[in-house]
Amino acid sequence: MTATELTAAQAALAAEYAAVYGYGVVGGRISPARRKEAQEAYDAHRARRDALRRTVRALGGTPHAAAAAYELPFPVPDAAAALRLAAELEDRLAAVYADLVRSAEKSRRLDAAAALREAAVRSVRWRGSGVAFPGLAERAPGAPAPSPSTPSNAL
């Protein structure tokens, strides 16, 4: 275990908190035809969140708490915006899981890779298209880079 692995696990936990919140918004706006899919994603992210809390403890850390609310990256007034939000959530998760894959060891690396794959698959389902290297596309030229000054409650 390294400090880098703990930091990456905390970042993944924070992203899962944000995803759980975000899917609450998605579920309230998504079309009835996609509501079951949104519920399944919500449940999957709750399970990942709980697993990451255990991982952080196993790494000797104290899991950070979720924010009371999160700032959405754009308004979500309708089903089309809900689809975009769901895809955005999954893209952001893929990025933090790519970081965890790089820093994790042994079975935790396998778990992170599985989470990255799941996020990439959900993103494709929501968006209808994918990227060559999920989790790395967010770092492409022109994409906004995560900033240390980004509020902890920003999605």
Textual characterization of the structure:
Helix 1 (3-29) packs antiparallel against helix 2 (35-58) and helix 1 (3-29) packs antiparallel against helix 3. The chain is mainly α. The chain is built from 4 helices and no strands. The radius of gyration is 15 Å and the shape is globular. The two termini are 28 Å apart. Residues 138-149 have low confidence and may be disordered.
Give the integer mean of the pLDDT values.
88
The biggest beta sheet is recorded as: none
Q: What is the overall number of helices?
A: 4
Seen as an oligomer or otherwise, the chain set is single chain
Give the structural class: mainly alpha
Cα radius of gyration in angstroms: 15 Å
Number of strands: 0
Pattern of helices and strands = HHHH
User: What is the molecular shape?
Assistant: globular
Give the proportion of residues in helices: 55-70%
Unreliable stretches: 138-149
Distance between the termini: 28 Å
Beta content: under 5%
Looking at this protein, list some descriptive labels:
mainly alpha, 155 residues, single chain, globular, 4 helices
